[in-house]
Write a structure and sequence with these properties.
Helices cover 26% and strands 25% of the residues. By secondary structure, it is of the alpha/beta class. The protein has one domain: Alpha-Beta Complex (Spore Coat Polysaccharide Biosynthesis Protein SpsA, Chain A). A seven-stranded mixed sheet has the order 5-4-1-6-11-8-12, with helices on both faces. A hairpin with a 2-residue loop joins strand 2 and strand 3. Helix 3 packs across helix 6. The chain is globular, with a radius of gyration of 16 Å.
Length: 235
C-alpha cells in the first residue's frame, strides 16, 4: 500500500477527560456548537473514511447515544469494561478494524479548515512496504498552550526517534496517525499505551512522521478548549 487512502479509522474516545472538570464527557464537549467527536468523525468522512470504530469507557452510554444517529461514516463501538489506554484500546478493536492499515485519531482534536487535507496527505505518504506507523507531527514551538519538551525527533528520511528525557524535541505528536495491523502482532493483554508500539516500530526502522503546518489544537484542557473557539474556520 503506497498512498492508498485507508477506509477505516479508530477514534479514541475512552479517556476520562479529568482535566476539563465537570460537564459532559470530553468527546461531547462543544466547539462552535459541534461536539469534538463529531468534528473528528466529519473530518475523517471528508478524508474518505467509510467506517469508524469508536472506543468507549467513561460515561460510555452517553457517548454511544450521541453517536447512534450518525450514518457517515458508519460507526462501530468498541466498549471497554476496563480502560485499556491507547494501545490496549486499539488492540482490543482490531477485529473491527480489518486487515489493512487504518487511521487512529484522538477525539479531542480541533483543526483548521485544511484538517481533512492533512489526513489525505498522511494517507498519500504512508508506504506499507517501509512503515508500520506514520504519525502526523506539529512543531513544538508553534503549539498553543503547550510548554512541554516535545515528543519526537525527525530525520531527513522521515524516520522518527522518540524523545528520551531530558532533551527537548522539536515536534509534537498531533494525535493523528496511520498504523499497520502487524504492529499489534503478539500485543499484550490489558492496558498499555501506543508509545510501546512506537518503540517497537522505531527499533525496526519503521516509525515515520509527517509535519503539519496548519491550524491544530489538542483541546484537552479548559484553556485549550476556549482557544479553540477563536480558531478561524476551524473544522
Amino acid at each position: 500500500m503506497t498512498g492508498t487512502r485507508p477506509h477505516t479509522a479508530m477514534v479514541l474516545a475512552a479517556g476520562l477527560g479529568s482535566r476539563l472538570g465537570d460537564g459532559p464527557p470530553k468527546p461531547l464537549r462543544r466547539v462552535s456548537g459541534r461536539a469534538l467527536i463529531d468534528r473528528a468523525l466529519d473530518m475523517l468522512g471528508e478524508a474518505g473514511v467509510e467506517r469508524a470504530v469508536v472506543n468507549t469507557h467513561h460515561r460510555a452510554a452517553e457517548v454511544e447515544a450521541h453517536l447512534a444517529g450518525r450514518t457517515r461514516p458508519q460507526i462501530l463501538i468498541s466498549r471497554e469494561a476496563e480502560r485499556l489506554e491507547t494501545g490496549g484500546g486499539v488492540a482490543h478493536a482490531l477485529a473491527l478494524l480489518g486487515g489493512e492499515p487504518f487511521f487512529v485519531l484522538n477525539a479531542d482534536l480541533v483543526w483548521g479548515p485544511d484538517g481533512a487535507d492533512w489526513l489525505r496527505r498522511l494517507a498519500a505518504g504512508f508506504d506499507a512496504r517501509r512503515m508500520d506507523a506514520l504519525l502526523l507531527l506539529y512543531p513544538t514551538a508553534r503549539a498553543v498552550h503547550h510548554d512541554g519538551p516535545g515528543d519526537f525527533h525527525l530525520a531527513s528520511d522521515g524516520r522518527l526517534c522518540r524523545r528520551r528525557d531530558p532533551e527537548p524535541a522539536p515536534f509534537l505528536f498531533t494525535g493523528a496517525q496511520i498504523l499497520a495491523p502487524r504492529l499489534f502482532d503478539d500485543a499484550p493483554q490489558g492496558a498499555w499505551r501506543l508509545t510501546r508500539a512506537y518503540d517497537r516500530a522505531e527499533t525496526g526502522g519503521r516509525l515515520f512522521g509527517l509535519v503539519c503546518e496548519g491550524e491544530w489544537l489538542d483541546a484537552g484542557t479548559p484553556e485549550r478548549l476556549a482557544h479553540a473557539e477563536a480558531m478561524p474556520a476551524s473544522a
